[in-house]
Amino acid sequence: MSDGPGTGERKQRWIPHTYAILLGIMVLAALMSYIIPAGEFERIEQDGQTIVVQGSYQQIEQHPVGPFALFKAIPKGMSAASQIVFYIFLVGGAFGIIRATGAIEAGIGKIVHRLENKEKLLIPVTMFVFSVLGATIGMSEESIIFVPIGIAVARALGFDAVTGTAMVAMGAAAGFAGGMLNPFTVGIAQSIAELKVFSGIVFRSCVYVIILGFGIWYVMRYADKVKKDPAKGVMFDIEEKLKQEDSRKAADEFQQFSWRHAMVFLFLAAGLSVNVYGVFKWDWFLTELTASFLIIGFASGLVGKLGINGTFDAFIDGMKVIAFGAIIVGFARAILIIMEEGYIIDTVINTLAGLIGSLPSTLNAVGMYFVQVIINFFIPSGSGQAATTMPIMTPLADLLGMERQVAVLAYQYGDAITNSIIPTSASLMGYLAVAGIPYERWVKFVWKLIAGWLIIALIALVAAVVLGIS
């Protein structure tokens, strides 16, 4: 192969580690506390929300943050974000149990195999299934394990590795962008913005359908072109060198779908339904949602025949997988702690309000959206970006007279859509490595799809402002 994972890793060495970027931002924030004028807004409690009083900003005495205070901000950030950190850990552990039962692999394997001779249904059905997982459990890195079976079936039907990868990864990405019930992005962002968790679900669902529909059309169009003329595929020369027999073996590695797997899916569906009902009817929040996910996970472990010890082993493994995204929330909150202790956060908010506020009201959200897109390159973790930006964007939305729900939408789309093209995305680099697709070949395939999604999200934000989505 002309370009493999090793080469890709060498190309990515220039990109700093996400934690290194966050620490760098912390150092920058501390330095800025010596330079940026300290100031603060007056805040009041209104309808259960802490509201910034417009026009109340005033400068105060400088409060620079020293080196020791900078590192104290990390444990302070962990403590301040503890509810969210442990929510991510425990929910990640619960999903670790579900994954360990093999139900998701077996279920998807069964669906894909049944569609092997139904080419026209393969791509839309596969992308829909993965989009549901992306929208409900935040599937991202988890999609990596399904890429080999997607490629195997795609090649068997006359498509290429890009088609097989895209129908798995871009399906999950479409659902992740929709995020209607994603506890790791929309759930966290809304909790920081003091909104009811998973509120605005109808609007998000409508946008999700459009994003998914465009994604399915795009992938099917490419697949049809490759089947008619393989030379038009972005991987043609590499595909010619591969032996399909090796790829097809991957499809046989998954378990057969059993009644135990069916029970796990039943528990998951029932649990998610209870969560939605609880949020809207019983005012459930992170604590209740965490407890519900734990019940789903433990019940799945027992019916999935993992046993007591196996269930808790899978629970710990699930928390290990999610540790990167959980701890990053504490680091991100540390940035906020430094800016608060230096009394520069309100100065930043006031400045951003002036810049974005100079735009027409319907374009304020667009300005916020592009800020989130840029930040996502440096902080590709959805939960980390929510913890970093939403404490700033929430009061900014208040100052601009914008609904907080719109600020969450700007974060959501700015975080999710470019994950499928930026080289700092762990999930992207993971499934490209498994698929053996060079990064530049993937960009050649996907850039128009990402551009289309960005435009759809931009239109959706303008619509959200006009419709007053709250």
TrEMBL record:
Q: Which UniProt keywords apply?
A: Cell membrane, Membrane, Transmembrane, Transmembrane helix
Among InterPro entries, the record links this protein to: C4_dicarb_anaerob_car-like, DASS-Related_Transporters
For this protein, the parts annotated as crossing the membrane are 19-36, 80-100, 121-138, 169-189, 201-220, 257-277, 289-308, 320-339, 421-439, 445-469
The UniProt record lists the keyword Protein biosynthesis: no
GO cellular component annotations of the record: plasma membrane
Instruction: State the membrane topology.
Output: Multi-pass membrane protein
Q: Which domain of life is it from?
A: Bacteria
Localisation: Cell membrane
> What PANTHER family does the annotation carry?
ARGININE REPRESSOR, BASIC AMINO ACID ANTIPORTER YFCC-RELATED
Name of the protein this chain belongs to:
Uncharacterized membrane protein YfcC, ion transporter superfamily
